[in-house]
Amino acid sequence: MTEPDLRPLALVTGASRGIGAAVARALAPGFDVLLGGRDAGALQALADELPGSRPWPVELTDTAAVAEAVGGIERLDVLVHSAGVGLLGSVAETSAGTWRRQFDVNVVAVAELTRLLLPALRAARGRVVLINSGSGLVARPGWASYAASKFALRAFADALRAEEAPHGVRVTSVHPGRVDTDMQRGVVAHEGGAYKPDAYLRPESVAGAVLLAVTAPPDAELTELVLRPAP
Predict the structure, then answer these.
(1) Is there a contact between 53 and 35 (Cβ–Cβ < 8 Å)?
(2) Which domains are assigned to the chain?
């Protein structure tokens, strides 16, 4: 996907912790990695751990800041969208502001960053991976706005895949079940349950699925990957 004397380049959003950090670690042996996120200290600590990586701190909902941050990226082999928010609540208790925030982060920011990077992705015939959710396949009570944003993210991926296929850009949606992350701990607290880490996927398992998608051979396109915790 790149010139023989250059290491391929990947950009991972949400890289300061959880799934995003695990994805960055999984990609680092074969890619130079731009570590996207808002926590500059956490990004620098991860960059110190991963040779060839560097922090890429930006607020993804700030369109002007994102446009400035992508300047100079002329080729991009892999774009992994891992940043997101999970704001739970029933329809009756979810405000318009929560709906807007959820869609701004989980859908609009993803679409805009992808749009800005399409020339670089096309130049490299790159791969786009979107960390979706089981909630992008099934909507459960209390998850209306979150699930709606993830259904929209899946639709975005499907349309992007069809549009960019002539340019050689491949698009994969990854739908993990519940993952052992800070976000999941917040979900359990919201639902009033007991947290049992062994009942959840590890971030590294999700990262393995991402690595599978981006290293698939030329004759194989992984369009969707669904992961569930093993019983």
Answers:
(1) yes
(2) 9-227 (3.40.50.720)
